Amino acid sequence: MSLVLDPAAQDLLFREARTANTFTDEPVTDEQVRAIYDLVKYGPTAFNQTPLRITLVRSPEARERLVALMADGNKPKTATAPLVAILSADNEFHEELPALFPAFPQAKDLFFAERPVRERSAAMNAALQAAYFVVGVRAAGLAAGPMTGFDFEGVRKEFLDDDHTPLMVVNIGRPGPDAWYPRSPRLDYDDVVTTV
Fold first, then answer.
1. How many Å apart are CA 43 and CA 92, to the nearest integer?
2. Mean pLDDT, the chain, as a whole number?
3. Which is nearest to 84 in space by CA: 97, 65, 104, 103?
4. pLDDT digits (tens, 9 = 90+) for 68-86
5. Residue 108 has what pLDDT?
6. What CA–CA distance (Å, rounded) separates 11 from 27?
7. Other CB atoms closer than 10 Å to residue 21's CB: what's the count?
8. CB 88 within 8 A of CB 167
9. How many CA atoms lie within 13 A of 24 on its CB side?
10. Chain CA centroid to CA 115, Å
11. SS3 letters across 92-122
C-alpha cells in the first residue's frame, strides 16, 4: 500500500528534510510564520489544548541575549539564522480550554486544576505541537534547525516567565552552504513495531 501524500511532498517533509546548520541571509517574514502556524494549528492534541507558545527573536539585542544562552556548538548558527523561534509550553493553557474544547468545558477544572498535572500535559502536548511546527517550516520550503542545547532556566528568565517552560530553540531559514551533516541511521520497522 502506498501513501496518499505525493512522493515529492513526502521527500520535502521527511525523507529529504534535514536539520540545517547554516542558512542564507534571505529573511523569513511574519507572513511565512503566520502561514506555518495557520497550517500546523490543526495538529491533534489532548482535549484540543494548545499549550505551545512561539517567541520570535527578531531584534539584534534579543538575538545577542539568546546566543549567550546557547551551547557553544549552537551559538554560530543561532547568531546567523534569519529567524530564531523559542518554543515553550504554557502551563496555564487550561484557561483557554472552555473555548477550545466546548464539548466538555468542565475539563479545565476537572482534569487540570493542579499545576503538576498541567505541567505534564503542557509538556507532552506542546512537544507534539513543536514537532508539527518543524514539519510546517519544511512545508513552507524552509529549513528548521531545532535545538535543545541551551540554558533552559536562563531562557525562561530572559524571554519567558514562570508559567512557561522552554522546549526548544528553532533556527529557521533557507539552507546555506554545507547546511547538512550526513544523515544518521534510522531504526527499521521491525525494530520498532510489535504486534500483540
1. 20
2. 96
3. 65
4. 999 999 999 999 999 999 9
5. 94
6. 24
7. 19
8. yes
9. 7
10. 23
11. CHHHHHHHHCCCCCCHHHHHHCCHHHHHHHH
Q: Which of 90, 111, 89 is nearest to 101 (CA)?
A: 111
Say if CB 23 and CB 82 are below 8 A apart.
yes
Q: In sequence order, what E strands does 33-113 have? A: 52-57, 83-90
Mean pLDDT of 10-27: 94
Q: How far is CA 103 from CA 12, 90, 117, 125, in A?
A: 36, 22, 21, 19
Write the pLDDT tens digit of every residue in 112-128: 999 999 999 999 999 99
- In this structure, what is the dihedral angle of CA atoms 169, 174, 178, 182, given to the nearest 10 degrees? 60
Burial of residue 97 (CB within 10 Å: 0-12, 13-18, 19+) is buried
Quote the CA–CA distance of 187 and 83 in Å, as a whole number.
32
Phi, psi (degrees; rounded to nearest 5) at 143: -105, 145
**What is the model's pLDDT at position 2?**
86
CA distances from 2 to 6, 7, 139 (A): 10, 10, 20
pLDDT at 1 over 80: no
Model confidence band, residue 26 (pLDDT cutoffs 50, 70, 90)? very high
Task: Read off the pTM.
Answer: 0.95
